[in-house]
Design goal:
The complex is a heterodimer of chains A (113) and B (114).
Chain A lengths: L3 E4 L2 E5 L4 E7 L6 E7 L6 E7 L4 E4 L2 E6 L4 E6 L8 E7 L9 E2 L3 E6 L1
Parallel strand pairs in A: 2-11
Antiparallel strand pairs in A: 1-3, 3-8, 4-5, 4-9, 6-7, 7-8, 9-10, 9-11
Chain B lengths: L3 E4 L2 E4 L5 E7 L5 E8 L3 E8 L6 E2 L6 E3 L9 E3 L8 E8 L9 E2 L3 E5 L1
Parallel strand pairs in B: 2-11
Antiparallel strand pairs in B: 1-3, 3-8, 4-5, 4-9, 5-6, 7-8, 9-10, 9-11
Classes of the chains: A mainly beta (113), B mainly beta (114).
């Protein structure tokens, strides 16, 4: 089955700096890669996703890049703000019927004011 | 009801007791999921249902059972709770039974088994 790994487990950046969170996956058949954000005590929420037919996707201050050859994808957050502090989960899956997401263990991002 | 809800919000349970966690969605989503979240382990799929009347096992199904009698409800039952089932449980739903659709999560149930 799929195995998704996130490194590092924690990341601390200064407000205004950029943050990059990386994930690797094992199953070359995976072609859907979402990122979820979970604020303290809240539910996970989808913030951006990418499919394998594109290499990069951007939405305001966040972007995701995908390297299928190397089997890794990254979340990029520019001009970080304190409200970006949260746990970020990456996930991977095939997109066929009955396919299921496999989540990474999560990375805690802290943005220092 | 708006979106997806879970009950109870939190519960302390004695080991060996039976417990049902409730999940209801009003989005008419076909697929529903139960995850447990443990520190350092991320979100792990317990059981899922692709449509009313069908269920399937996820990554960590042992000790749990589910039913899907209708589209809206997806209860998770612990037949005889054990301390290792102490966790935060999230229910989620998506429009279709494929990972390419966004999953919407409920607010979670914090369960402590003593």
């Amino acid at each position: 089955g799929e195995n998704v790994e996130q490194h590092p487990s924690t990341l601390s950046v200064q407000e205004g700096d950029s943050a990059v969170i990386k994930c690797t996956y094992s199953d070359s058949a995976s072609n859907y890669f979402p990122w979820y954000k979970q604020e303290l005590g809240k539910r996970p929420q989808l913030i951006i996703d990418i499919r394998s037919n594109v290499g990069e996707k951007k939405d305001q201050r966040i972007a995701v890049t995908l390297n299928k050859t190397a089997k890794h994808f990254s979340l990029h957050i520019t001009e970080t703000q304190p409200e970006d502090s949260a746990v970020y989960f990456c996930a991977a899956s095939e997109t066929g019927a009955n396919s299921k997401l496999t989540f990474g263990k999560g990375i805690t991002l802290s943005v220092r004011p | 009801i708006a979106g997806i809800t879970q009950a109870p919000t939190s519960q302390i349970l004695a080991a060996g007791r039976r417990m049902t966690l409730r999940c209801t969605q009003d989005m008419r989503h076909n697929a529903m999921y139960w995850y447990r979240q443990d520190l350092g382990l991320g979100l792990r799929l317990i059981h899922y249902s692709n449509t009313a009347g069908t269920t399937g096992k996820g990554e960590v199904p042992d000790g749990y059972s589910v039913s899907r009698a209708n589209t809206d409800d997806f209860p998770l039952t612990l037949a005889s709770a054990v301390p290792s089932q102490t966790s935060v449980y999230f229910c989620a739903s998506s429009d279709r039974a494929q990972a390419g659709d966004e999953q919407f999560f409920g607010p979670g149930t914090r369960l402590t088994v003593l």
